[in-house]
Amino acid sequence: MSENRYGGAGQPAGASTDTWSISPWSDTHPVPSGQVLRDQSIYTQLLEMMLHLRQTMSEHFVQLMSRQGLLQEQRHTEAIREQEALLDRLLCQMINLLQSGAMSGLELQVPLPSEDSRGDVRYGQGTQLSGQPDPVSQLSDCEAAFVSRDLSNRGIDISALYQSKSQGYNAYQKDKYHKDKNTLGFINLGTSENKLCIDLMTERLLESDMNCIEEGLLQYADWRGQPFLREEVARFLTYYCRAPAPLDPENVVVLNGCCSVFSVLAMVLCDPGEAFLIPTPFYGGFAFSSRLYAKVELIPVHLESTITAINTYPFQLTVDKLEEALLEARLEGKNIRGLVLTNPQNPLGDIYSPDSLMKYLEFAKRYDLHVIIDEIYMLSVFDESITFHSVLSMKSLPDRNRTHVIWGTSKDFGISGFRFGALYTHNKEVASAVSAFSFLHSISGIAQHKLCQLLQNTEWIDKVYLPTYRFRLRKAHKYVTAKLKSLEIPFHNRSSGLYVWINLKKYLDPCTFEEEQLLYRRFLDHKLLLSCGKAYMCKEPGWFRLVFADELPRLKLGMRRFCDVLEEQKQDLRVKQLKPPASQPASCSGTP
Amino acid sequence: MFALPQKNFRAPTTCLGPTCTQDMDRSHGDDLEGECSRKLDQKLPGVGDPVMLSSDTSYLSSRGRMIKWFWDLAEEGYRTYHMDEYDEDKNPSGIINLGTSENKLCFDLLSRRLSQSDMQWVEPSLLQYPDWRGHLFLREEVAKFLTFYCKSPVPLRPENVVVLNGGASLFSALATVLCEVGEAFLIPTPYYGAITQHVCLYGNVRLAYVYLDSEVTGLDTRPFQLTVEKLETALREAYSEGVRVKGLILINPQNPLGDVYSTEELQEYLVFAKRHKLHVIVDEVYMLSVFEESVGYHSVLSLERLPDPQRTHVMWATSKDFGMSGLRFATLYTENKDVATAVASLCRYHGLSGLVQYQMAQLLRDRDWINQVYLPENHARLKAAHTYVSEELRALGIPFLSRGAGFFIWVDLRKYLPKGTFEEEMLLWRRFLDNKVLLSFGKAFECKEPGWFRFVFSDQAHRLRLGMQRVRQVLTGKSQVAEDPHPSQTQKPSDQCR
């Protein structure tokens, strides 16, 4: 039983790291290695070979042409080109056929995730493509954007990721709940968005100081961000992170979103194929951002929900676990360049104590690892008895040149549509390398002005915004957790964030990721969007993340649908258990 | 044919092949990391081998070091300007910028329009995660706008529109989804040099140059004329060097030539591309900045039938035509659904604020203001500034090219270079900068002939006058200065063009 709990049918032992490897469709199209092959269906293997073949062929033709080109034989050149076109067309047809086969497997296997905040994408699953063909799947949707003769292989890869990721979210976007116009539409408790303070923000953004048009805002400016904004960010972080000394605006780079910051950091800290350590469960967008442009791997540090001698609380991160994961990865020949931490944690809602934080940083220093700390939920700590300690509040950082902090306004101010993310790093070299990308991730001068005004007004933030925001978070949290308690559903959220991490293992029989996926589907069928644990690379099947930072009427309706689904699931489970026992009646036992 | 050493392209870990390497075969800025430049000087000049840049003390990955190194190099001229910017009151001896292609003539109009009450609007959907292609209301407005101003024979469709934070991002995204690493786009030179960096930084895609001459020969009717024959030759040469070409980039109106392509020419280029199954990216970012009425500008979207609509991708932005480079708004129009989807898949990294999207929709929708206030005034001011600068140049006896589109004049200063080398071009550029006027030199546009400079004229009269005065000082005082070769100042500024 316990084996089942930790193994999970979808995840063969020892395979966990393989799923993180860079997509075999990436730049060089290596022939799939045995390791990768083991995890994938025949379709996927064939598909990779075909893509490889297509690439090889095109290289061959280039060579052929180059020889031909010298001869200047127009007719020959054309003949070669026709041949090439014909072969390419045939290959593409084959690839398309394989793709649909592989995709139908994907359809069944991959959690159709709710889109999360900064690009929640199920990175691992995107490449895993395992499972058997399922004729019922929505082929037509997926097929379209896949193998196109007009896209490069990496373009195809990017599109595929996007498609697989956005289905649930797109369904929601097309059919949103509205209290008058669309009462049967989707309720989204899957995307981590703060919708509690739109009234306050709207009011604030309409104040007259927000509207300023200056020449400097409409022209090319400092690509790292307008100096006035970087100064304000430095002041803001000094104050809210309780930095012992004023932070330096020169150490700030602002980009259009935290996912951009993370993506660029991965670019400049790692070479392709190198890796970061990251404790699971973690925000899936990291996987997407590290892979998309940078081709950097994430090596999971698996945490467990059970309390044992080493685990004093569920999903505890310890230096031992970090060390173990690091050494194991090194044995496999991975080059680990850094450690990624999210504090407050997403999806756990945990906060690291200063002591543990210090231990993680010292661990990183010991092994010359960079530490990227994402503190995007820093002001969303709603339990008054708990104090959040930013890494910037430390008197002395163990390795300040390798510590890089990310913060943005999306969560704490509920303005994800603003597209703003900031990097704070003491390392001038890193700041300058990140700046090289900033013209591809720049923010409108007009928006930079508004952000500056927003961050500047600490009085409004302290006296109006934060008290109201936290009060509303508490209220919504209380409502949801009371519901969960009445359903006897174990959950994990102590103090911060916009979500609770809930355990629905008792509704899964057997307790596998396939069943988790089916339950996720069932929620979708009832027009409720949640995120499932697999999307966070959780090792144990059955966990879901439920976002509560929504207005009460929607939240209530969402929870009603939630209860309905679980009731239905329970009925099904009962019927299933009455049936003659299958070969192995493994069900997950009690919850932690 | 390729400015870049082949060596660079083979290094699998490098991201930056082409950027700026073209400029490295001479000396470098003193402010570069000492180690890098020293090593480069010792070794063969002109090869940006990433290995040489490695340093044990660096916190960056090797591609991170490369990127930083190139960045420091590329932005030098622009940074010098920023540290010593001209200001009528505060810094009258500061640098006048006639190098960056920005329209500074219509801020008064824009500021009035953007301050109107319809611009100040906040609603929940603008503050939340958007459709990553851009809000539908904006894409609808863009489609209508382009239909009207590009004179499209059929209404353009919002689903073919993808909105991003600037043309640079769009070039980068297109390069990534259309090409594999190391593949190339054809581009006629001289061209807006920053594209090299745009397609390379993430995409690791190169440019294969179609070199054009100032000499009018054969069937050419004007200098730097692009012909299908030249395209064919360049493509063949690329193949012969083992480079796979995936597309062709056309800038229309042209930067830095200030020229426009006729419908027939456009059609020929597109047919050429179709014949070779090449994508065509047409950058029409100066489309509304054609200030000379006699110039008949034709957008590629105005053609009755595109030879290969699935491989034709059009770019437009507000940076130039609306003088708002700081606003960060650009748009792709393509009938190819796969390309649109693939670009949109990258858009969460290149998105723009919802509030700004709303303002853009309001602006593009206001046809009355655009047609009756903004465009006539903008064109009149551009024309006046253009007339002033061209007359100054004529008075100096300096040949130049400019047909009445864009913000710049392509100036022939070859007679000021005794030996006609790029080193001299650089020295002259440096002399302009020393005399506090920033220009762009031809090498930054990959011009084949040393001695061409781009003068941007879309600036306020007082600055323009002062700028031209400083230019004149350098050129007329040339005889004395020429003896002094400034040996210590052969700093490499590289492309500050934008």
TrEMBL record, chain A:
Keywords: Pyridoxal phosphate. GO terms for molecular function: pyridoxal phosphate binding; transaminase activity. Residues 14-26 have a biased composition (Polar residues). Residues 1-34 are annotated as: Disordered. It comes from the Eukaryota. Residues 187-549 form the Aminotransferase class I/classII large domain. Coiled coil: none annotated. CDD domains: AAT_like. One of its GO terms (biological process) is amino acid metabolic process. PANTHER family: BIFUNCTIONAL ASPARTATE AMINOTRANSFERASE AND GLUTAMATE/ASPARTATE-PREPHENATE AMINOTRANSFERASE-RELATED, INACTIVE 1-AMINOCYCLOPROPANE-1-CARBOXYLATE SYNTHASE-LIKE PROTEIN 2-RELATED. This is Aminotransferase class I/classII large domain-containing protein.
UniProtKB/TrEMBL annotation, chain B:
It holds the Pfam family Aminotran_1_2. Residues 477-498 are annotated as: Disordered. Keywords: Pyridoxal phosphate. One of its GO terms (molecular function) is pyridoxal phosphate binding. Residues 487-498 have a biased composition (Polar residues). The keyword Ribonucleoprotein does not apply. One of its GO terms (biological process) is amino acid metabolic process. It comes from the Eukaryota. Residues 121-457 form the Aminotransferase class I/classII large domain. Gene3D superfamilies: Aspartate Aminotransferase, domain 1, Type I PLP-dependent aspartate aminotransferase-like (Major domain). The keyword Ion transport does not apply. Belongs to the class-I pyridoxal-phosphate-dependent aminotransferase family. Does not catalyze the synthesis of 1-aminocyclopropane-1-carboxylate but is capable of catalyzing the deamination of L-vinylglycine. This is 1-aminocyclopropane-1-carboxylate synthase-like protein 1. It comes from Callithrix jacchus (White-tufted-ear marmoset).
